[in-house]
Amino acid sequence: MKKILCTLAAILMVATGAKADEGMWLLPLLQKMNIKSMQEIGCELSAEEIYSINHSSLKDAIVHFGSGCTGEIISNEGLLVTNHHCGYGNIQKLSSDEHNYLENGYWAMSRNEELPCKGLTVTFLQNMTDVTPILNKEKKHLEKKYRNAENAGEKIAAELEAKASELIEAAKADYPHCEANIVSFYNNNVQYLIVDKVFTDVRFVGAPPASVGKFGGETDNWMWPRHTGDFSMFRVYAGKDNEPADYSEENVPYIPKKSLTISLKGVQENDFSFIMGYPGRTQRFQTASQLKQMIDINRIRVDARTTRQNIMNEGMEASPSVRLKYASKYARSSNGWKKWQGEELAFQKLNIIGREEQKEQDFIKWVGQKKSRLAQYGQALKKVDEAVAAGKDAERIITYINESVASMGPETVLINFFNTLNTHLKGSTDTAAVIRQSVEETLPLFKDYDVALEKKMCVAMLQFYRDEVDSIYFPQIKENFATLDFQQYVDGIFRNSHFATREKFEQVANLSIKDLADDPLKEFHSAIVQVITPCYASYFGNAEQLKEGSREFAAGLLKWQKGEPSYPDANSTMRLTYGTVKPYSPKDAVLYRHYSTLTGVMEKEDPNNYEFKVPAKLKELYEAKDFGMYAENDNIVTCFLTTNDITGGNSGSPVLNAKGELIGLAFDGNWESMSSDVMFEPDLQRCICVDIRYVLFMMDKFGGASHLLEEMNFSK
Ligand code: ARG
């Protein structure tokens, strides 16, 4: 293993000149791996202008928005733009029936009207350093030190952990006001020390109405042609010293090291484009057995969500107030639900498993050619396959439970309450006060909670679980789960449990933990925990073997492809992908142009379908061709396509031109290549971007927030 790690670092270093399109590249390796090839297809920047730890560079304008999206700074006063679907949860939280910013849109006309978003963070990357050589050297030393010692493994692990903490503490000392973490790449073959600055006072500045920001809804999600104005704006605030500070009226707009310049020139086919952002998860180093298991598990999720979403949707269609409550939950659920279905289809159509199996065959052949390779990588696939097989059934049950009976509305309240309680109990002996505080902190869950709808969903999810799993996994409650009348059971819970309605939950503030002992929902939840606990034990029982096999497999693959530049799986760290603006052909005889316009919005309009309503004002602007400086050929370009390699988490990422100027925001992938997290498809895979001119048109002409233009920089 030691040897593998040393050679790996070397492999990553020798690689030069990558091909375009595919790849979520590591920024510190840009100079070595990518910049030459980027320049060959049009990039006019140096690697140092994109990523530098000594000077301000583009990376200083790119942020991790919340924990699941990307945003970019577009003014010297901390103004930030991201996708509408990234701001969605926060905008929903700020909205009420009286002030429905989600539905109607919002623009702060002055700084006082910028609305604080509790809990939202914006993270700036300061530095990332490969610490693999340091940790490997330490490991080697420890292995020698404890060669014949008892519990050598544990001792080595503990001291390695201490070494890692030492590195982290040193980084924190070098970077005041920052956090530091060690993050693994390439299936645990490489470790980076990453230093971040996290801002906690972030305020909502504005967004278009849902009919623009989410135009096309779930129907158009993951699809091209697309016409969604998927953007929202926020502002980062800091203390007077320009450092992170929790919300305070005294705070001032953050002055960034770098903000992006905006280009209003638009895009042409074949233009160079690159994207920097925080892709979340990909599976490009997984084995065929893991991929099959993933598809199997996702099918369970899809089935459970179909049941729940149908009920949610009915409630949302019937009442605007229910729609507001469930908008964010529904969008989150449905986004995965549709993605996994597309992925399953694409797996079949593009023969993903077959191609992966072929790759593994070729890999095995290569490994077999040398004794040393056999020693290092010969067991990798076997280890992974065995571990997957051993955990398979347990993972299915875990998924069934988590997607149905462990995520019912009242149970979410219960789980949240007890988690909060247990956290606070650690720091206090005043149990009564802690209970009151935990109730208070859990109560906001009832803001997005409709009792009638929750009841229906509970009944359906219990039924789903009973229909799908073997009776040995039924919860052991007082009643007989196998024959239970779920409607009656759920009615009883909503009558008697302290976690199912706001009124009863508020009473918990005056109760003791003992008083909750007989709670019927608590009984149910404990019974579910009894079922899931052994499943987790079985599932994680092979975690070490899986980790080891995966690490060897990735190390082997890298060695096999030695000399070719490589990038690790996405892991929510900052990456860069580069390519060009390009159309595509989704099927025989069909060509999709590389951009869409407002004309398409008007074509798709359907006043009777919530997803395709068009605001009257937008129609007026369109008819009057009142497009201002944002027009191209007497129209507004809404979205465009590039060949950039992105995934979830990249949402909101800046799409940049050859000069590094902002031309759009990445917000989606396309239906024909939904297997893209596993394999990149050069001919089919596209990144869907909203044109920055549509963003600004909506902000300025439609939203009347032209004052924000004054703080932005535009290219000449
Ligand atoms: N598919 C997009 C992504 O995963 C999210 C789009 C959100 N829109 C929606 N209609 N749910 O980044």
Can you lay out the helices and strands and say which pair or pack?
Blueprint: H1 2-14, E1 25-26, H2 30-33, H3 35-40, H4 47-50, E2 62-65, E3 69-73, E4 79-82, H5 84-94, H6 101-104, E5 106-107, E6 115-116, E7 122-130, H7 132-145, H8 152-174, E8 179-185, E9 190-199, E10 201-207, H9 210-213, H10 217-220, E11 232-238, E12 252-253, E13 261-262, E14 272-277, H11 288-318, H12 320-349, H13 352-368, H14 371-377, H15 380-403, H16 409-425, H17 431-442, H18 451-468, H19 486-496, H20 502-507, H21 520-540, H22 543-560, E15 575-580, E16 584-587, E17 590-592, E18 595-597, H23 598-604, H24 616-623, E19 637-642, E20 654-656, E21 662-669, E22 687-691, H25 692-702, E23 713-714
Parallel strand pairs: 13-23
Antiparallel strand pairs: 1-15, 2-3, 2-7, 3-4, 4-11, 5-10, 6-10, 7-9, 8-9, 10-11, 11-12, 14-15, 14-20, 16-17, 18-19, 19-22, 20-21, 21-22
Helix pairs in contact: 1-7, 1-22, 5-12, 7-8, 11-12, 11-15, 11-18, 15-21, 15-22, 16-17, 18-19
